[in-house]
Amino acid sequence: MPASRTPSRPVAPLIPRLALAGFWAAAVLAHLASGPDLRERAWPMAYGLLEALACLSLLLRAWKTSGAERTAWGFLGASALADTANLALAALAALGLPPPLEGLTSALNLATGALVVVGVLSFPRPRERRGRGKRQFLDSLIFATSLLLLLWVMGVQTSLRSAGTGMGFRVFLAYLNAALLGGGVVYITSGHLGRARGAFGWLAASALAWLASLTLWTLWGLPPRVNREGWIVIAGLIPLCQGLAAWTPHSVDGGDPRTEGPWRFFRSLPYLPMAAGIAALSWILAWRPEAVTRETFGIFLILVVFLVLRMLQAIRDLQASNTHLEQRVAQRTQALERAQETLLRTERMNTLATLGAGLTHDLNNLLGALRGSAELLHAHLEQGQEPSRRDVQRIIDISEKASQTTQRLMNFGRRGETPRGSTARDIAEALAASREIMRMLLPDTITLSLGIDPATCPALVETATLEQVLVNLVSNAKDAMPQGGAVAIRLFSGTTAEGASAAILEVSDTGHGISPEVQESIFDPFFTTKPEGKGTGLGLASVRALMRAQNGTVDVVSFPGKGTTFRLAFPALP
User: Fold this and answer.
1) DSSP summary character for residue 153
2) Nearest-angstrom CA–CA distance, 178 and 118
3) 502, β-bridge pairs
4) Which one of 161, 213, 223, 457 is at 20 to 30 Å from 411 when CA atoms are compared?
5) pLDDT per residue over 215-226, tens digit each?
6) What residues have CB less than 8 Å from 555, skipping those under 6 apart?
């Protein structure tokens, strides 16, 4: 069997990444070990070669990808190409050769920054929720403006003024490009922090190296022969990080949500330069107010405008979230109400089925009596006897009783379809009218007693609700007494747990009782102790739901082997 090969996809970009890093490290060591004159000649060539390698890496990544990602890598490659051309012009100027066009160097500097910013912003972004893109755009503007403010209050304006108009514009433009690059990276990664672990992380490091090298240059007073300085090696990190970004094996389509945990710190990244810039400005206002210029206040006011816009956007987002939450709550409430209605309707169908079973037994008895009366009448006719009025009346009475029995079941079903509140009546009257329904549920081996205290406080109840509650409780009592027993229903005045007056309805049986462990769950939907196919687990759950709809309560008292009592409290009329 041939040996299995391990996947080699991550190995391919590892070699050029090591080559880029190794070339930069060798250039750094050679620069630091050389004298000032050799540094001035060697470093531009090393930097130009490193920039050319980064340009090739970026263009190669653009060639291998497609769609919006290809466009983004293409812009980054064009930016590196413009910087390479600018370095070539600088090398020609060092040899005494003027540039072919006046202002070409400044144009290439502008193109370098503009292309890299456009490249970063061209990367594909996941589809955002409404308002999220605006928040990220404002965060990126706050980040870029904060960087400019921080650099300005650190004393950059002094170096720019002493350096002359042309050099000052170039340095300011370089700072603006670097700040915009950082803002672009923040815009791309702020909503998807997992993306910062790949190419965007290296692009952010490139922007940081860009800012660091420019800051050191200005703080050193903008020396014209900068290649002699040791810190110039930091500038080599700019093309190095861009080249490493091109060779990152991870896709830039989106970050893995599971990797965002360690990057949560970067959610506050857009505001760190702002805090540092405001702190530095406060220090200058306190100790050196004369150093604060109109340009400083101009940048600060722009930052304040962006912060106000961000605050307004946050308020709109909060209002939109509140509206969305209220809509979700309303939808969930409606869904719960529909589910409860379905639950009650299902249990009522089960109740009708239970009543139908009892009705079948009663109708069978009535049909037997009807058949006996008809056979007796037939025998009299065969014997030549005239049918007596009593025999005919007996058949009529049995038929009427059968009709009343089926009518009770039909009325029970119709009341379940009537609007709530249309059949409300006094609980004592409703309970007395429900006696025949309860009797239909019980076999002859179970006795039924109904006690109504005349002094019971008045309380209104839905007739259909009371019947369904009683049918569920009496059916459970019947199942708890397979060998026979007694069911007692009592109505009397009492109080609720809060001490309010109420009509108390108790349904007791002499069955096997309920254990304390089972009592904790009997009102839960779909909980049942009956064998499979014998119960739905919705009976007592519907009892509790129906009692809540009546603003009432239901409790249970039971002991194994001593029967069960359900206590229902209906609020009394004021």
Assistant:
1) I
2) 13
3) 494, 571
4) 457
5) 787 777 767 777
6) 566, 567, 569
Sequence-ordered list of residues with C-beta below 8 angstroms from that of 149, at least 6 positions apart, any chain: 273, 274, 277, 278, 281, 296, 299, 300, 303
Are 147 and 179 contacting, i.e. CB atoms less than 8 angstroms apart?
yes
What pLDDT, on a 0 to 100 scale, did the predictor assign at position 422?
46
CA distances from 241 to 58, 111, 119, 479 (A): 11, 19, 15, 79
- Using only C-alpha atoms, the chain has a radius of gyration, in whole angstroms, of 44
Question: Mean pLDDT across the stretch 378-400?
Answer: 73
Neighbours of 55 (CB within 10 A): 24
Q: How many residues does the chain have?
A: 574
Give residue 4's pLDDT band: very low, low, confident or very high (50, 70, 90): very low
The single-letter code of the amino acid at 211 is: L
Residues 6+ apart with CB under 8 A from 141: 183, 306
Q: How many whole angstroms separate alpha carbon 113 and alpha carbon 90?
A: 17
The DSSP result for 314-345, as a single string, is HHHHHHHHHHHHHHHHHHHHHHHHHHHHHHHH
With CA atoms as reference, report the closest residue to 461 among 418, 422, 495: 422
CA–CA distance, 428 with 471 (Å, rounded to integer): 17
pLDDT grade, residue 3 (50/70/90)? Answer: very low
User: What is the SS3 assignment for 496?
Assistant: coil
Using a cut of 0.85, tell me whether the model's pTM lies above it.
Answer: no
Helices (H), 416-555: 427-433, 435-441, 463-479, 516-519, 539-549
Q: What share of the chain is helix, strand, coil (3-state, %, to 5)?
A: 70, 10, 25
Distance, in Å, from the CA atom of 327 to the CA atom of 340, rounded to the nearest integer, reads 20
Residue with tokens 């009394």: 572
According to DSSP, the β-strands at 485-495 and 501-509 are antiparallel
DSSP-derived secondary structure letter, 422: T
C-alpha 537: how far from chain center: 32
